[in-house]
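Throughout this chapter, every protein is written as a compact record of paired, labelled lines. An example of such a record is reproduced below:
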Amino acid sequence: MASKPWNEWSTTLSHLTLGVVSLHAAVSTAQCTNGHLMCAGCFIHLLADARLKEEQATCPNCRCEISKSLCCRNLAVEKAVSELPSECGFCLRQFPRSLLERHQKEECQDRVTQCKYKRIGCPWHGPFHELTVHEAACAHPTKTGNELMEILDEMDQSHRKEMQLYNSIFSLLSFEKIGYTEVQFRPYRTDDFITRLYYETPRFTVLNQTWVLKARVNDSERNPNLSCKRTLSFQLLLKSKVTAPLECSFLLLKGPYDDVKISPVIYHFVFTNESNETDYVPLPIVDSVECNKLLAAKNINLRLFLFQIQK
């Protein structure tokens, strides 16, 4: 069977990479009390949809109630599915699903690869079977020292941007006043004529002040259950009265027992009695799949870090 044309393949590279990473997760199943099966991704999506609509999640086949406690895995089906043929997204050949991940990562001649001179700036990436020909003709090893220095300077600038966040976190850890707490967002709906879903935490105390966190789905979209792309944004509110401006840095991370993927982003705000709530800022969840993991739960559990900036 002919492999996929390179220009067509490259447009779907990110999707194929995601497929390799989540291959084993896709094999997992959930089974309702009547024996109907759902893949893990669809199961989480159904639970998230039900939370957004404030309904009980039901099996799409028999409409019996489903939840993480009511459903179980079917190991026999998962074993059978792992042996079913599945198509490699690169070479289009078929393999048992249990062998596909290894094939796509290590054996496929059409799998994505990069030039060994990437370390000195070569941007080439392409199918593995073209790698030897490319590296033999790659121009980067013959570039002059000055040309390579320009390339390396650009790469250093990109690397410095990536490290800036981590350096900022390390700097915050040296502050005198640091506080953190586990927070639990509970779902509510507005009393407006057009109701909207939002999340809010109970009041909590950090750094001797009282706070509340609010969150909303898709920036208060009326029917987020109709959208496949889902995001969360949050707002930090100071409920105490302060005698002087309170300048803080803060970030939200996943709780200690969750597996949701959240990238750390630091936000800053100066709280006063007149300006006691931040704007809504994005919760940096990796993608909609991870967002559904949060929305599928009865409550959203995260960890808040607060750093008070001393003048």
About this structure: Residues 261 and 286 are 6 Å apart (CA to CA).
